[in-house]
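Notes to self after the call with IL:
- keep both proteins in one doc
- input above output, always
- annotate only the second one for now

Protein 1:
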Amino acid sequence: MRYFLEIAYKGTHFHGFQEQEGVPTIQGEINKTLASLLGHQVDSVGSGRTDTGVHCLKQFMHFDTDKEISDKGNFIYRMNRILPSDILIKDIFPVREELSARFSANSRSYEYHITRVKNPFLNELAYFFPMPRLDVEKMIEATPILFHYTDFEAFSKVHTEVMHFICHIKKAEWKEEANGKLVFYITADRFLRGMVRAIVGTFLEVGCGRLSVQGFEQVIQSKDRRKAGRAVPPQGLYLVDVSYPSSIFM
């Protein structure tokens, strides 16, 4: 039988989501916990990868087992007792066996959090960027340009094993919040490795006056990662949602 897990985690002390030998990862910790409770090896599949230090408010993974999980409340309780405190199991539910946490997803949504004032309570949870004259209005002006393109090779890590660089961005916006907080929201059908952090880094080049709004568009047109801004640090990035067609759930 196939089950979906809904999870959340603080990624500070993990080497990303994907299981790797010899280092702590989100998937590795969850696989070990599932194996302990189910009595057999578990090879889970996640809805996607996150890098070292990246956080998650909502992600899914699936696994297969011959054992029926009849009391899901107790199973979630036992998993959360075993897992490190930075990983949370939010829900578990059966799905049809053809449903994949990775390939059945419609879209994924991220947020990037920036604090422009020093805040010890946001340490490891936001990027401290104390630029006094950041032109947020220019960054907002450049944002709609993303909707005019689908090829985002300029924002992809180089030497990645992908067949193409096509992504359809459905939402992208900046919001200024209280106490010097700045948040970038983005939703797309898929993301390239390092894409969100490179996009935010390039927006900051616009905000700092080192790149014009027209220059931002030219970066995308160039399809050259060297023309884009540097990738911002991982601690400000959050995977916040993964959506699926409702009709495919049991």
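Protein 2 (the one to annotate):
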Amino acid sequence: MHVDHDANADNRPTVSVVIPMHNEQGAVSGLVQGISAAASELPAFEIIAVDDGSTDGTYEALKEMQKDCPQLRILQHRIAGGQSAAVHSGVKAARANICCTLDGDGQNPPEELPKIWAPLVSGDDASIGLVAGQRVGRKDTASKKLASRFANALRGWMLKDGTRDTGCGFKAFRTQAFLDLPFFNHMHRYLPALFKAYGWNIALVDVAHQQRLSGESKYTNFGRAMVGIWDLFGVVWLTRRAKSVSAKEASRS
């Protein structure tokens, strides 16, 4: 993989890996170690763990890992704000021009990360704003997979976003392009549609999936469905009203 070394001319990391975490104490060590190993091929990287109001020992576990991982930065929400809020806080704090996300429960194997950031780090296609993972061989319950399949089909029909699995935590994107998007809760499930609406191309990458390392799901199937219906109508409205032009300052003559 070609690495753009110019990205580090100002001592910024090549990639910032953002992990939203809520009561994931048991997953901390494996995730931080796995991300560090996967990112060892990069000139520089940082890991931004966002403790989203955890009530277990997640924060303490992160502080312990920080002793041996200088690339680890820790942000903390006093109260839980949800996955999208945690991701947004992490991206706002990121020092790299490229951010990569994965779930904090360990179901996204860190060794898959290089496949996600490769299209952006290579710099071969400046039109790509987002690389989205699509899970294969999902290790979820039958009911959760069925609910997800229905939600993805409905979302795909309404948004025409071209991806079968927007619920996958693996995403890589241009940091500023993400911050230019309108923020709302649960936006992490609609990033392909939002990036396309704002003029970016997206790349899709198949990724592995594994059993949860700790904790339990933060959503019920019913609760996810109810929130998702309202979100869908909102995202349809947003994508149809997205700003479609950008300005370029004229050079002084």
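Annotation: The chain has one domain: 10-240. The chain is about 35% helix and 15% strand.
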